Amino acid sequence: MIKADIHKADIHNHLGRNGANPGFDETIDIAHARLGNGGIFGIANSDDFRYEKFVEQKGGKYKRITVSDKIGVYVPEKQMFVVKCQEVFSKQGHILAIAMPHGKNIASKEARDAIKEAKDLGAFLDAVHPFYVEGIGKFLEQNPELLQHFSTWEVYNGSAVFIPGFTTAFANKKAMKFYSSNLLEKLGNGVGMSSSTDGHSVESIGKCYTLLDYSTNSFQNEFRNITSVDKLHIESNWFDMYKHAAQLGGILK
Ligand SMILES: [Zn+2]
What we know:
The chain is of the alpha/beta class. The chain has helices spanning 24-35, 50-56, 111-120, 137-142, 171-187, 219-224, 238-248, and strands at 7-10, 40-45, 65-66, 72-75, 80-90, 93-98, 124-127, 150-157, 192-196, 209-212, 232-233. The radius of gyration is 17 Å and the shape is globular.
């Protein structure tokens, strides 16, 4: 699919508020500045279609080649791949479905049903910020038979910032500890580790990423194969996260 030796992948991003972005080419340029040729970034729908709106928007000169199964677009001028994802806000915690088909979203808010829907659509799963606010870590700890359905475990989320009284402390440390003691040893290469920005602005895309080498020719298996922190680039996205929190709280527009 993409011919480059290294792929810096920041799979978990939301663009700006309700999918706001400065334009297709401009967004690609910003992401390319951090991720370079071969770069991969994910845009996550929530209960909206911001990914579809992003790739279908008018304007811009870069070619947008729809990849097989319509799970993303390839931009040859910049050798970049934009992947469609969806963050499902299930009652039991958030789940990121990666490589979702264009035009389709998961409807269920029950984790078990959402997992099934994602699999039926051909997507694979990322346990995002598992021990942060609304993470699914606790539920999976109590229902370990579900762990096998996940291909990657977000051991570092750039936006899992501790705000006393509002968010969870040491969320990334807990995610890493759980991964090391429960997933790496028990499930082997079934679940890989990953680092993502979880950005809520285009400017933050690519602050965190996971290095995929694409030796298996399967996007899902590349994520499964990451079992070492050497493959993770981490950087706190605290400023963007505070801004997003303030917007949600109605303090900022
Ligand atoms: Zn997110």
